[in-house]
Amino acid sequence: TKPAIFARETSCDCRAPHEKLTIAQARRGTPVDRPVRVYADGIFDLFHSGHARALMQAKNLFPNTYLIVGVCSDELTHKYKGFTVMTEIERYEALRHCRYVDEILRDAPWTLTPEFLEKHKIDFVAHDDIPYSSAGSEDVYKHIKEAGMFVPTQRTEGISTSDLITRIVRDYDVYARRNLQRGYTAKELNVSYINEKKYRLQNQVDRMKEKVRTVEEKSKHFVYRVEEKSHDLIQKWEEKSREFIGNFLELFGPDGTWKQVFQERSGRMLSYALSPRESPCNSPPRELSPLRSPSPPSPPARWHNARPSPPTSPKGASASISSMSEGDEDEK
């Protein structure tokens, strides 16, 4: 779980004497205290999955492998290959954290000499089999191959440091705009004043496009939800309408409840008309209509003012005359 160690001047610390191994012997396996020491070198700029897969193959070449990785310095790399994106310190640290690496050799030589191989007790050198022409040589690993110490690995197609740099150069404007948006200055990016304004304007345009795209997505989602709701409403309306029509037919249909009720009522009315009920014998007296109220009672008679009513018979007439005479006498 710890990072790989940096190589020391003492080199190999194994107790057993370091004897030269053949590939067949290494593949059969070696004692625990005598691992097969495999060396892989490179620049490892912009450390990526292609580098990691090559080191994984080198680590798994033999059952008991100790992998030493040599990393060339900036001076040698700039001299023989070109400018790097990462510094040598950054490249050292990137290699230290690869789980297949057991040891890091800093400031590795560009060409491997027999003295270098003997000093670090290297058994085999791992690299891809493509001839690597550099430093005036058609293949810097030619003498290693002739000595039987070369073990090939396979390159990972579609990924390399040159491919990554090509992507950056091709999409330079995009990365410059991104870093300007993240707070980098035009001076740090080596961008002119005009290009800076152009990039910032493009960033604003992109933000507006993103907002429009977001509004469009939201509107599509809203329309989709409205369509779902409308379908649900139409379905519910159809269900309710079918239920209403069924209830209506059940109530008012040819055999519905309303027809049965109407037939029952019409039958009762017809029976009443054919055989009406008799009036009760002890019916209550008939009350007078309020329009025909009885005449008010006559006020009491005052004898001194009252006029005698005409007699209805001779006896009544004589009685009334006698009463009048008695009254006259009283007044006198």
TrEMBL record:
It catalyses: phosphocholine + CTP + H(+) = CDP-choline + diphosphate. Residues 274-332 are annotated as: Disordered. Keywords: Lipid biosynthesis, Lipid metabolism, Nucleotidyltransferase, Phospholipid biosynthesis, Phospholipid metabolism, Transferase. Residues 39-167 form the Cytidyltransferase-like domain. The keyword Lipid biosynthesis applies. Its EC number is 2.7.7.15. Gene3D superfamilies: HUPs. Pathway: Phospholipid metabolism; phosphatidylcholine biosynthesis; phosphatidylcholine from phosphocholine: step 1/2; Lipid metabolism. NCBIfam families: cyt_tran_rel (TIGR00125). Catalyzes the key rate-limiting step in the CDP-choline pathway for phosphatidylcholine biosynthesis. Belongs to the cytidylyltransferase family. This is choline-phosphate cytidylyltransferase. It comes from Dicentrarchus labrax. The gene is pcyt1ba.
